[in-house]
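Colleagues,

Please find the record for the two-part complex below.
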Amino acid sequence: MAPLMRLASLVFLASLGGGTHAADLPLEYAVKASYLYKFAPFVQWPSTAFDTPTAPLSICIAGSDPFGPALSEAVRGQRVNGHPIVVRRVEAVRPGLTCQILYVGGEDTSAALQAVAHEPILTVTDHNRSGAGGMIQFVMMAGRVRFSIDQAAAQGNGIAISSKLLGLAVSVNR
Amino acid sequence: MNPRRVLRRLMTAIAETPAIGIAIACLLLVASLELAYHNEGQARTDKIRDLTVQARILSASLAGPLAFNDQTAIHEYIDALRASPEFNAVGAYDEHGNLVDGFSRKGEALPRHNLEGSPVVQGDELVMTSPVAQNGAKLGSVYVRAATERWSRRAARYLGIAIVVVMACLLVVVLTAFYASASAANRRLQAEIVGREEAEEALRQAQKMEAMGQLTGGVAHDFNNLLMVASSGMELLDRTTDPVRRERLKDGIRQAIERGAKLTQQLLTFARRSPLSPETVEVGQRIRALQDLFERSLREDVKVEFEFAAGLWPIEVDPSQFDVAILNIAINARDAMPDGGKIKIAAHNYPAGGKTTRDMVRVSIRDSGAGIPPELMEKVFEPFFTTKVVGTGTGLGLSQVYGFVRSSGGEVKIESVAGRGTTVLLLFPRSSQTLPHAPLQTGRMRHAEHDATVLVAEDDEHVAELVSEMLRELGYKSKRGASAAEALRLLEETGPFDLVLSDMIMPGKMNGLELAQEVVRREPGTPVVLMTGYSEAAATAAAEGFPLLVKPYTIEAMGEVLGQALQQH
């Protein structure tokens, strides 16, 4: 429980420090890590995404990994709809990847996103002006971590996102 | 024991105790308490359900904001509940149970750490927690503390109804208690009324018997004289052949027998046990008819005078009671005149106006006796008050007079001057009824031209012989049966008869009345005439509707009754 507690306190600190400067990178990514697996309960994948009702829900990390072991620690023991959450690192993203959530770190995201463009995978990226963005993009607003959602892209791949999550997004592409 | 009687007794017993009322009242109380308790439980369940729904809505709304740490949204959702005064405290907690946001209006502050559990009532508050989860993933929890209605307020709400229920219960108890005591009192009263009626009846009978006692001496003496006339007359008849003398002797015997018959008839009427049955009578006629009784119950040195005004109004009284009253006053007058004297009985109409508001008939009985001392005047009507020597009077005479006159709606007064005599005044209200017509006298009995056959049922040999003789004299043929059974046998074997004439009291299983009923059943067209010497039997026959010959009767009376009976059939 100790890492969990630590993560929680980091989230708490992040919210408190919303009005100040957001240059603290580790804190920003700690929050992003916790959001990454908290998206799962608000997302409905097509039935083909899972082999069995208890098959693990995989969060794949591609590109640069800003989270380190903290994410794996945080998701330990977490379950969504009976699926245990696991974190995997992926060196090369190819079509047919068996992940439910794919986080592509770094600026160069286009190739990876293109590879899974027709897979039922919820893609998450940081907001960048040059490269292409995922279905969910983290954005920094007033020093706090927020996100925007491309609902149209998700729906195109059979992924339904709860209105609760849509309501919290800073912007939604319908 | 008869089950119906047991049931009736049970019902009476139940009616006379307030137990049922108390039971109903208790039941009412228990039922309303139960209802109140049930309502309380229902209200509490409703409240918990209500709050559960609110908490669930809150936790569903908070799922996103808690998961993604949206402080503004969390605060907005929680603040929305602040508007309702129902919520004393609301808190949102993260997945580790740590307080994120919330408010506490009053009472203790929000717990720093939320412990989830079932709803609990703490004093006046209901505390409830609800998990925040999305698709099986736990995201946090909420804490809600809501005010429940205060005990004092609930009590106040129930107080009004409670007062009504308690009053209703009291009313039921009071009413049934009242009903119970009333029905018990009513039963006692009924019993008392019956007892009193019996006592009054006994008193009236005792009165008659006393008057009878006064009469008996004189009557016995008279009867001996009559018997003397009859027996010596018979003896003399045997010894003489002179037709004129024989005729005179026969006349004397007949007169003696007629007087004897009249005398016994009066005694029987007098002694008859009968309830008060008012009839319309004319005072003058009624008192004149008592002449014979006066002669026998008063001494020879007491003279009775009548003075009745013409056209006296009729009055409505029980005739035999009237006779007893007049006789009682006359006997008192006699006793007030030990050296003889005069009793004057007068009657006249006393029209309304002056002292009375109604038309009355005033009867006065005045003696020339010793008078009543003023100090005793108030006591004379009291029962058992007597100035007579012990053993000669019961002290009931004037109290009978008083009771009778009052129950007839009249008044009684006594005026007395010491040494000059006493006057007893009786006032009776005028009756609106007219006098019943005196029975038509047929005068001479003609010999019947018919040859009807009469079946005579009579156990007494001599009477039967005489009756047959009289029937033959009237032109009837007759056959005699010595008992009811024999008469029925004759009816069957040698019938039909034109008429059955039966004595009422006969030996054997069947009496005359039963024989009469049997004859009517067998031969509905055959008239039946009964004869008897007993007044009570006579009353029974009259009640059954059979014509009656009261012994002793004359040949004329027989002819008339039989003729009528035959005519009617």
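DSSP finds 14 helices and 17 strands in chain B.

Comments are welcome before we finalize the supplementary table.
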